[in-house]
Amino acid sequence: MIVQTVAFVIKKEGRERFEGKTSKDVASMLEFPGCLSSECWFSEDKDTCEFMLVSKWESKKDFQNWLKRPEHLQEHRDAHKNKETKPSIVLEKTRKSYEVLS
To answer: 3-class DSSP state for residue 73?
Structure first.
């Protein structure tokens, strides 16, 4: 079993849009084979917000399959396509994977 985390530090003005994205991702994970749990944690300070998606999976392969689904890949293509005209609200992204030992 593994736990995946991905933390996004974003510009505060993107909070509403990012809340929608993370809500959609959590729901998608919960419906995906091999996902045992998924939730989004949130914190904010004066200038930024942080969203941390935390999910538990039966295996690393299950999580990788979720990442490879067509709609997820298309979201990334669309985000990179509009980089010049629409700057990203994401300031920092950190992903980690943990193996559950007990």
So the answer is: helix
Q: In angstroms, how far apart are the furthest CA atoms of the chain? A: 48
Q: In what order do the strands lie in the sheet with 90-99?
A: 35-44, 48-57, 2-11, 90-99
Q: How far apart are CA 39 and CA 26, in angstroms?
A: 6
Quote the tokens at residue 19: 């809340």
How many CB atoms neighbour CB 72 within 10 A? 13
For 15-59, write each residue's pLDDT tens digit. 998 999 899 999 999 999 999 999 999 999 999 999 999 999 999
Q: For Cα atoms 92, 16, 84, give the angle at the middle one, nearest 5 degrees.
A: 55
